[in-house]
Amino acid sequence: MATHPWHLRQAARHFWLGDLIAYPTEAVYGLGCNPLDWDAVQRLLKLKQRPIEKGLILIASDFEQLQPFISEPAPEIMTPVLASWPGPATWLLPAAPGTPEWLTGRHNSIAVRVTAHPLAAELCRVCESALVSTSANVSGHQPARNPLALYSQLKGSASFILNGRVGALKQPTPIRDAMSGAIIRS
């Protein structure tokens, strides 16, 4: 199912207005917003009932969109990270000085991914920005895998839903710490 460019422009408009946007990702529907808009992030955290201390994931269409948020480690650490993208691999990288606490939580790192999902990547391109990306569900509940499940769980709290199919992954993307190699979520 192809998405009309108008839908992507509408999603970008909502992004820049500080609204919450729902969109398909590699495994589930994501719920996102402008990572630099504190009010939008605060609404997202309240809706999900997610503590700010946990931090959030950013997705992007390319590595350049993530660079303002990270302190790039040595090339030997970045080689496996960059080799996994675009793809369903989320990495913890050192956060750049000045990265908002609402993105990093209690951590010195930030979770980032160059998404392989074509619609999520196109959304990042149209917004010309990385997006906060968290599963579209209330904490402790199953993530939505289609718009109907999304709507019934979040009761229309997303300002815009970008309809599309989620990817083939059965679980959210794995998270690995780039500095230690530790698997945080499998």
Output the keywords.
32% helix; alpha/beta; 7 helices; 186 residues; DHBP synthase; globular
What's the layout of helices and strands?
Layout: H1 5-17, E1 21-24, E2 29-32, H2 38-48, E3 57-60, H3 63-66, H4 75-83, E4 90-94, H5 101-104, E5 109-114, H6 118-127, E6 131-132, E7 134-135, H7 147-154, E8 160-161, E9 175-177, E10 183-185
Parallel strand pairs: 1-8, 3-5, 4-9
Antiparallel strand pairs: 1-2, 2-7, 3-6, 4-5, 9-10
Helix pairs in contact: 1-6
Shape: globular
CATH topology: DHBP synthase
Number of helices, where a helix is a run of at least 4 consecutive DSSP H or I residues: 7
- Which ranges are low-confidence, i.e. pLDDT below 50, for 5 or more consecutive residues? none
What is the spatial order of strands in the main beta sheet? 6-3-5-4-9-10
Number of domains: 1
Termini separation comes to 29 Å
Mean pLDDT: 93
Q: Estimate the helix proportion, in percent.
A: 25-40%
**SSE succession:** HEEHEHHEHEHEEHEEE
Number of strands: 10
CATH C-level label: Alpha Beta
CATH architecture identity? Alpha-Beta Complex
Largest sheet geometry = 6 strands, mixed
Strand content of the residues, in percent? Answer: 15-25%
Describe it for me?
The structure is a single chain. With 186 residues, this protein is of the alpha/beta class. The chain has one domain: DHBP synthase. The chain has helices spanning 5-17, 38-48, 63-66, 75-83, 101-104, 118-127, 147-154, and strands at 21-24, 29-32, 57-60, 90-94, 109-114, 131-132, 134-135, 160-161, 175-177, 183-185. The chain has a 6-stranded mixed sheet with strand order 6-3-5-4-9-10. Strand 9 (175-177) and strand 10 form a beta hairpin. The longest helix has 13 residues, at 5-17. It is globular and about 45 Å long.
